[in-house]
Write a structure and sequence with these properties.
The chain is 29% helix and 26% strand. It starts with a strand and ends in a 6-residue tail after the last helix. The chain has a domain at 55-217: Aminopeptidase, CATH 3.40.630. Strands 6-7-8-9-10-5-11-12 form an 8-stranded mixed β-sheet. The chain is globular and about 60 Å long. With 262 residues, the chain is an alpha+beta fold.
Length: 262
C-alpha cells in the first residue's frame, strides 16, 4: 500500500498546513487491515481510502439493547433482502428515491445523481440491502455495503422520508448490524462521526471510534471532539491530553506512532 497526503486549505495565520491522508490499495494488500487502521474507501475513486474519525461496532460485545428492541417493534412492518450489487436492478425508480432522499438530507452538491449512480456501480461496494414494506412488497430503502470475510461496512443508505417517523433509517442500520452478528462477522463499520447528528451511530453495545491513532471506546472523548472548536491541533490541546491521555504526549506518540522508512 502507498500513503499520499492530499493538501487542504492552509491557515497561514495560525501556521496550519493540513493534509488529508489517503491510502492506495495495491494488489497484495489486505483490505481488512486497511479498515482496521482507520481508513474508509473514497466512493468515487476505486482502490483509494481516506483516514477519518469513523465509527465501528465490535460484534463480540454487541447484543440487542432495550432501545434496539424498541426500534424493531416500531418498524416491524419492514423486511429486507441482501443481494450482490452486480445483481441489483438500478433503475429510474431506485434513482429517484435515492436522489429525493439525498437532496432533502444533504443537498444536490453533496450527492448529485452521478454520485448516486457511481455508488451502485459495483466498483467500490459489493452488496445492497433492499428494504420493503412487508404488506405491499414495495421497496422503500436501500443500504449499500461492502462485505468482507470478517466485517461489513454500512456505507450509504437511502430511504423514503415518508417513513421517517416509523424509524426506517434506524431499522436499516440496526438490521445490518444484526445480520453481520448472525453471519459470524467480527466488525461493522458505520462511517464517519464529526457532528452531533451522527451520534445515532454510537447507539450500539460494542461501539468504538477512531481518534487518529487508535480505536477508543470512550464516548465522552468522541462528544468532546465533536464540540471542540479550538484552532490548535488536537495533540497540542493540553486539556484534551490531560483528560484522556494523562497529559503525556510523549508516551502517546511512542505507543501509537507509525514508523516509516524514507
Amino acid at each position: 500500500m502507498k500513503l499520499f497526503f492530499s493538501e487542504f486549505k492552509a491557515d497561514y495565520r495560525n501556521y496550519h498546513f493540513p493534509y488529508q491522508v489517503w491510502l492506495l490499495k495495491e494488489e497484495a494488500d489486505d483490505v481488512e487491515k486497511i479498515y482496521e487502521n482507520g481508513f474508509l474507501p473514497i466512493r468515487s475513486i476505486p482502490g483509494v481510502f481516506y483516514l477519518s474519525r469513523n465509527i465501528r461496532v465490535d460484534l463480540s460485545k454487541f447484543e440487542i439493547s432495550s432501545e434496539n428492541r424498541r426500534i424493531l417493534r416500531k418498524s416491524e412492518k419492514f423486511e429486507s433482502d441482501l443481494v450482490p450489487i452486480t445483481e441489483f436492478n438500478y433503475n429510474a425508480q431506485v434513482q429517484k428515491l435515492c436522489r429525493d432522499y439525498a437532496t432533502k438530507r444533504f443537498g444536490k452538491k453533496i450527492f448529485p445523481t452521478s454520485a448516486i449512480r457511481n455508488i451502485f456501480s459495483g466498483k467500490v461496494f459489493n452488496y445492497v440491502f433492499i428494504f420493503k414494506e412487508i404488506k405491499t412488497q414495495t421497496p422503500v430503502g436501500y443500504a449499500v455495503c461492502f462485505i468482507s470475510t470478517n466485517f461489513l461496512q454500512y456505507a450509504h443508505s437511502f430511504y423514503s422520508l415518508s417513513y421517517l417517523n416509523e424509524n426506517l433509517g434506524a431499522r436499516m442500520i440496526l438490521e445490518a448490524v444484526i445480520w453481520a452478528k448472525r453471519s459470524g462477522k467480527k466488525i461493522v463499520y458505520l462511517g464517519t462521526c464529526y457532528e452531533e447528528n451522527a451520534l445515532y451511530k454510537t447507539e450500539f453495545k460494542g461501539v468504538e471510534f477512531f481518534n487518529g491513532f487508535a480505536w477508543s471506546t470512550d464516548m465522552e472523548e468522541l462528544k468532546r471532539l465533536i464540540k471542540r472548536d479550538s484552532e490548535t491541533y488536537l495533540l497540542e490541546d493540553k486539556e484534551y491530553l490531560e483528560i484522556f491521555h494523562e497529559g503525556n504526549l510523549g508516551r502517546l506518540l511512542d505507543k501509537y506512532g507509525v514508523r516509516v522508512n524514507i
